[in-house]
Amino acid sequence: FLPNWVSQELIKMSSQASMIGGKGLLAANAVKSTKGSASRALPSYDGLRATTRSTEEARLKTSRSARSAKFSVQAIANPPKRSGRAERKDDDIQDLGAGKGGFFTNTTPDARRVKPSNANGRLTVKVVYVVLEAQYQSSLTAAVNQINENNENVCFEMVGYLLEELRNPDNYEEFKKDVASANIFIASLIFIEELAEKVVAVVEPERERMDAVLCFPSMPAVMRLNKLGSFSMSQLGQSKSVIADFMKKKKAEGGSGFEDGLLKLLRTLPKVLKYLPNDKAQDARNFIQSLQYWLGGSPENLENFLLLISSTYVPDLQETKMTIAEPVVFPDVGVWHPMAPTMYEDLKEYLNWYDTRKDMVFEKDCPVVGLVLQRTHLVTGDEGHYSAVVMALEAKGAKVVPIFAGGLDFSGPVEKYFYNPLTKLPLVNSVVSLTGFALVGGPARQDHPKAIQALKKLNVPYMVSVPLVFQTTEEWEDSTLGLHPVQVALQVALPELDGGMDPIIFSGRDRATGKSHSLYDQVESVAERAIKWGNLSRKKNAEKKLAITVFSFPPDKGNVGTAAYLNVFGSIWKVLTMMKREGYDVGELPEKEEDLINSILQDKEAKFNSPDMNIEYKMPVKEYEQLCSYSDALHENWGPPPGNLNTNGVDMLVYGKKYGNVFIGVQPTFGYEGDPMRLLFSKSASPHHGFAAYYTYVEKIFGADAVLHFGTHGSLEFMPGKQVGMSESCFPNALIGSTPNLYYYAANNPSEATIAKRRGYSTTISYLTPPAENAGLYKGLKELAELISSYQGLKDTGRGPSIVNTIIAKAIECNLDRDVDLPEGDAKDLENEVRDTVVGKVYGKLMEIESRLLPCGLHVVGVPPTAEEAVATLVNIASIDRPEADIIGLPNILARAVGRDIEEVYRSSDQGTLEDVTLLQEITDASRAAVTAFVGKTTGKDGRIGTNALGALAGIMSGGQPPWVRALNKTKFKKADKATLKPLFEYLKFCLTQVVKDNELGALTEALEGKYVLPGPGGDPIRNPDVLPTGKNIHALDPQAIPTSAAMQSAGVVVERLLERQKAENGGNWPETIALVLWGTDNIKTYGESLAQVMWMVGVRPMPDALGRVNKLELISLEELGRPRVDVVVNCSGVFRDLFVNQMNLLDRAIKLAAEQDEPLEMNFVRKHALEQAEELGVSLRQASTRIFSNSSGSYSSNVNLAVENSSWNDESQLQEMYLNRKSFSFNSDAPGSGMEESRDIFESALKTVDATFQNLDSSEISLTDVSHYFDSDPTKLVQGLRTDGKAPNSYIADTTTANAQVRTLGETVRLDARTKLLNPKWYEGMMGSGYEGVREIQKRLTNTMGWSATSGTVDNWVYDEANETFIEDEEMQKRLLETNPNSFRKIVATFLEANGRGYWDAPEEKLEKLRNLYMDVEDKIEGVE
User: Fold this and answer.
1) DSSP 3-state assignment of 577?
2) What is the model's pTM?
């Protein structure tokens, strides 16, 4: 029983468990003897303390001029492609240039090929190994060299491959040859499925021939290759097991004790199995013992490992006697220090040694930094990079506690070693993980809740620094992408889910030896930031300095304090009040918020006689050049300082105002917004001198302990540099320096928040967007609704036709004739059914307007929503079916109560069936009534959700008839199933309590006190209420997890509706090509719906691998698809490009797969166009099928938005040239390491075939005119200019903001946006309530509306007419706008004049003359002219 259990069950389960834990359960430990395990010293430190720092400094620290050269924008965007430079003597790194051949790494196995110099008659055994990382290279090489020099019986030929090298066809062919002649094959940590498949394809045919195959924790298909005599894992994962189920259950129960128990079992097994005569038992024992040797990692262990396997399984050596030592043991977990004589398993012993050291003296109250290390690097002697971090921290006066574990569950070691053994309080002030992995888990599976629990208890800042794994140092330095996408997913994205921050690359990899080495400047940065984060808990609040940074975009005095959905100055007032209460020195605070704005702008609310803002500091050029180490690098774009921006011609000017130890500063803008020529450049310019001077002041002169960027979003994180994995030459890295960066960020924007985290080293604190309200009806629209109500009551009388005539006339007056097909002539000539349909369609359009959600006003940090605001949000939360939680949406429940299916009601209503339009409105009204009754019980006297809501809600949910049931009993839906309603309202209770738990101010307090900020997802709180409560450190998602199957299902519905509508409007013809946009935030919120839409269009299905990561493809047959494959041109936003490189790879592979199918061209437009373009451009079919485009690495947007916002463009052709110049960089899955490559010819050729353009709206909070990004990415007029027939493509918008997804034309959506926001009194009065900042929001909507005129021509004249009537013709409104924010009002007036001048608005001359006079009047007042 025992041998059978070991081979089939224990090994099976422990292998599976190891994959769940990554380097986890099996990898968690080497066998440890019962005594003396800690007495064995580590591999020698070899004088590293004396030599490493000087060597690293000499190797990497550069002169000022060399440093500036590194900062060149052109050098960042176009790094030199070196070719075969000679090896460098100081570090033996051969630089082959990133991207050569298009791969992320261009190393070869030659550096890991070892042959005996002289066999001397000995048997030569060939070993081939494949590993994920290179830390075993040095130890294995040393082990083989030792055997070859000293063993009398056997010598080894060995060659090793890094997994990533197998992407290169030349390396892969060499791998095949090596395996074909190998005796022994070894693999470890093969967790990338497409590469695992390559390994299996080569090894499996040779498995039986080889003497031994040993695969340590890897993908199941690789583990099944294992073969040691009779021992096999060929059935791994293919049968059920009682033992396996038991162990899974034990693991699920949590706690680090599970791993400890399993490891004890594994340590004991070899001793038990040794005495069993069964061959299978001995083979199982040898496998486990091999694993122990392998995890021991030292040359001595690996030498004995090779001798054990060869002497036991190589036939010609089985009779040879060899002396083979037992595995050398190291502690499973413990504390390590490069100067210590041993590893410590007891914290007290380590602290006793540390405090008695003679080589270092520390201040009594110095900071203590905890370090998290990977055990394998220590036991293999590859710990130089760890030593450098320890030395850097100690040199800066900090003590260190560097802990390690054999596995990757560090929650136990954190508990064991990061608390004071006497007081039980946290011993460390901050923690830096140097593993790069999530705190609990490795490359395969993670346990984020367990990690968060451990970190929250410790409650100190948690940094996760990243070692280079798949690239050499030079490959990373030369790469515009930066860090390898697989490493981004595993070692940046996943640690963010734990709350990890500051993903600084701190070590590189030596090509010749495989060893890690520190990167001097990067290590310095890690050390400085770790200490500064830690100091926040050590300093008294009264001594801490905070730099609050606000934004001004577009650059205009009326725009100071720009942030999405946020009342910035009202929120800063709240923050300062809180800080004063907490003992911070905030100086003499103004009496009210208006005076705070005044102090920054110099004159109240940007009023008169104030061309400049308040100057807090004048920085002499000499001081700037001394303090800013990279100032020379800015000369390339801006010339020498002081330049023309943020300067008086002599000094650099820092705008803002100090209040005690708080500096409120205005971040300078990009600087090139108003320069049409700079906007045309395909790559973005460096920051200007004024921008650099601002951050130099914050860090070096003001001496901020932290900076707080206030609101979504600024410019720092979008400055040129690598996409992810900043180097010292990347501008975001240089600008933020060593200052801890806090960032208030809108909860609904996780994608750009993630850019701020990765490129600006920010700890984000989410804030709530203003709760949405229904748009309602007003003016003529309200009158139209009343007419329809009359018709419903009188339609069967003789008055019916005349009312319909009035409805049609009023609809035309309200400009609804562009949205609804209205009949001509008298309604009495129409059949009753036709009249009902006409009225039904008008009613449907009114209800669409009335029920549309819009955020009203601006959010103030820490202020809870009103009851009325909460109702609209909760109604929409309640409208969604959530099958994963067994919750049925409220509209679905109510439809069932009257015997209807909600989807059927939606479809019928969309078609204008009056009865169902009415029913749908009744369902909406009943939903609001039920939720209003529910919320009403939680409202305080001020009309807001009170903090006593939790108690009130508890009372609601228990006993008596619930208020929502009472509300529904008054409607036709009284039969609604109460059992189904209960879980829905339980869920709404959870959502409401999450809103009440707002921690926006609390999280800031915690961060400033040097505590851990709880992580949480960002996104749409309606789709995903887990976004609440706000005040969390926003993270995105595992980029390898999308698109989900649910996203594929939703995407299929939208694509079907899109294609059917385009077909109907295109003479019954299928569209051949659709141009669409992929946004980062949208795909995070929807788990990849728009990504899935592209897949549906080309007819390819994404598939998960064995670990659930979506990286495989399956072609959908034409029979299943039921239509042609539609070609696409995909424009990825710069943020999507940064976050989802793996998905861009997947999309490019999918499109090329479709292009290569031998199918009729009329059924495969992807292939049709690729063949045409291949011939036209003289390229291969795969090159011609390039369809995934974006900006060059480090650049964002087409700049069309900047040109429009700043009126810095001459004509539309200039805007189109910006788009082509900046968005024509392609991603190629055949050469993924090349990054984004300029491909304008293919881009233009593909755009010429476009029949329709398409974008998605997935959130009620952001629509087409709310932000400039949407029109910035719109190619509608561009496509028309490129098409040979000059035909304008149809343009569509998918609206999935409600349960009833819609596909509208762009024109319909622009009109809907105008009616519900810009022209809606509820919206603009809500904005006016926010004062200065609200006027700016109105101005922004008008400017963005004109942006749509420029790119698509879809804005109707009446939109400008009614906007002019609302904001200009109304004298009282005009006065309010002028008094509240004169600069923004001036921009409103100028936008009307510009729209007319560019031909977008046809207005009578008297209106234009009034606007011209008004503009001059406002200008005079702003300039102080009486």
Assistant:
1) helix
2) 0.83
| First-to-last C-alpha distance (Å) of the chain | 101
- Count of residues making up the chain: 1426
Which tokens go with 1178?
């003289």
Distance separating alpha carbons of residues 709 and 156, to the nearest angstrom:
59
CB 774 within 8 A of CB 861: no
CA 877-878-882 angle, to 5 degrees, is: 85
Q: Where residue 45 falls among pLDDT bands split at 50, 70, 90?
A: very low
Per-residue pLDDT of 266-298, as tens digits, reads 555 555 445 455 566 788 888 888 988 998 889
CB 1292 within 8 A of CB 1062: yes
Cα 652 to Cα 689: distance, rounded to the nearest angstrom = 8
Q: Tell me how far apart the alpha carbons of residues 578 and 91 are, in angstroms, rounded to a whole number.
A: 52
For 591, the token pair is 């009496």
Q: What is the CA radius of gyration of the chain?
A: 33
Pairing mode, strands 662-666 and 762-767: unpaired
What is the enclosing helix (H) or strand (E) of 855?
A: strand 853-855
Rounded to whole angstroms, how far apart are CA atoms 37 and 58? 38
Going by DSSP bridges, is the β-strand pair 462-464/466-467 parallel, antiparallel, or unpaired?
unpaired
Enter the tokens of residue 1091: 């990504």
Q: φ and ψ at 977, to 5 degrees? A: -65, 115
φ and ψ of 854, to 5 deg: -145, 135
Q: pLDDT confidence of 561, banded at 50, 70, 90?
A: confident
Q: What's the confidence (pLDDT) of residue 104? A: 67
What angle in degrees, to the nearest 10, is found between the helix axes of 279-296 and 11-20?
Answer: 30
Q: Indicate the burial class of 1426 (C-beta count within 10 angstroms; 0-12, 13-18, 19 or more).
A: exposed
For the stretch 128-179, pLDDT in tens is 999 988 888 999 999 999 999 999 999 999 999 999 899 889 999 999 999 9
3-state DSSP assignment of residue 363 = coil
Cis peptide before 43 (omega within 30 of 0): no
Q: Which two tokens stand for residue 126?
A: 């060939």
Q: Which residues contact 921 (CB under 8 A, 6 or more apart)?
A: 843, 847
CB atoms within 10 A of CB 490: 27
Q: What is the largest CA-CA distance in the chain?
A: 114
* Cβ within 8 Å of residue 585, ≥6 positions away: 542, 543, 660, 661, 662
CB contact burial 108-129 (16+ within 10 A = b; e otherwise) = bbebbebebeeeeebeebbbbb
What SS3 state is found at 220? helix
Sign of the dihedral through C-alpha 1011, 1016, 1019, 1021:
negative
Helix (H, G, I), strand (E, B) or coil at 914: helix
As a whole number of angstroms, the distance between CA 1396 and CA 1178 comes to 45
Whether the Cβ atoms of residue 328 and residue 300 lie closer than 8 Å to each other: yes
Please state which of the ranges 96-110, 232-246, 539-553 shows the lowest mean pLDDT.
232-246
Tokens of 866: 């009103």
Encode pLDDT of 221-280 as tens digits: 899 999 998 888 766 555 444 334 444 454 445 444 444 444 455 555 555 445 455 566
Pairing of strands 231-232, 227-228: antiparallel
Q: Which amino acid is at 165?
A: E
| Contact predicate 171/165, CB 8 Å | yes
Cα distance between residue 775 and residue 789, in whole Å: 19
Structure tokens at 110: 């030659």
Report which DSSP code applies to 1314: I
Residues 6+ apart with CB under 8 A from 909: 840, 844, 916, 917, 919, 920, 1300
**Cβ–Cβ < 8 Å for 1418, 1381:** no
Q: Residue 181 burial by CB count (10 A; 0-12/13-18/19+): exposed, middle or buried?
A: exposed
pLDDT tens readout for residues 964-978: 999 999 999 999 999
Residue 160 CA to residue 137 CA, distance in Å, equals 8
CA distance 1293 to 1291: 7
